[in-house]
Amino acid sequence: MRNRPVALVTGGRRIGSALAAALADRGFDLVLSYAQSESEARAAAVAAESRGARSVVLRADLREVSACAALVDATVEAFGRLDAFVHMASVYVERPFADLTVEDWNASMDVDLRAAFLCAKAATPHMRRIGGGHIVLVSDWIAASGRPRYPGYVPYYVAKAAVIALTEALALELAPDRILVNAVAPGPVLPPQDLSAESYAAVERAVPLGRWGGAESVAKAVVGLLESDFITGETIRVDGGRHLR
Question: Which residue among 34, 156, 157, 160 is the active-site one?
Answer without folding.
Answer: 160
